[in-house]
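User: Fold this; tokens only.

Assistant: Input:
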Amino acid sequence: MPLYIANRLVDAAGRILLGKEQAIRLALACLLARGHLLIEDVPGVGKTTLAHLLARLLGLQFQRIQFTSDLLPADILGVSVFDPRDGAFRFHPGPVFAQMILADEINRATPKAQSALLEAMEEGQVSAEGRTLPLPAPFFVIATQNPADQIGTFPLPESQLDRFLMCIALGYPDPAAERALLAGEDRRALLARQETLLAPGELDTLFDAAARVHVAPPLLDYVQALLAHSRQATGFSLGLSPRAGLGLVASARAWALLAGRDHVQPEDVQAVLPAVAGHRLRSDGDRRTSPEERVRRLLEAVPLP
């Protein structure tokens, strides 16, 4: 049953976001691992469409926050407004109080505004007006950002990057997908007609199934070896954190579930490692090294179990 549900989600998403099955599967694996997703790419390749699509397919309450240079933390968390009828201040929750948040162009906002999401992403709660307020469950953040070399961007600090389980890129479509896109119906119209595919409780079924996927001790040894090499090798200046290790195991479980298996194979770890580790690893000295190159070096250095 979980595999049938997962395949329905992938197939439905693929009919709207053409030629991006790998990115769709990674995004679903990220959400099934209860992680947050960062999508970095040039404007106009479908980042926002993917976020809207996942929320609609999963039936999650959705809010979009457009990050700009003048955005304030209160614009995200909410603010207290004086109510003359009661003679007291009343807290008005901000858009963060939803099950899925699209933080659009997150690196257009200042670090102060970006940091408003830190507690929400890590603990599922926010502190506002001297109170700690729980967020809806499940709670996901999908953030998009433009390449850091574009004008008017504020790079995310390592502490916030580490809270995103995965970072993926969509890229330009291949010629066949682009031709179908040009000749087909407007994607926004298709998205507006897309129905929710999950019945009540089915998302929890997927969460539980992903958490039950078996990870053998040799696979855990492999993950630990990857983590240790990233921290000790001379080619890396910043290794993978324990949070990254937990996320890697959870992502591999979700990826195996999407493939219809009840156990994790080394190929599952390797499939999700670029998305989990690429934005966390830092090269020692050469900052021009791409995330793909850093992950490739890590995979080549650590033997398979």
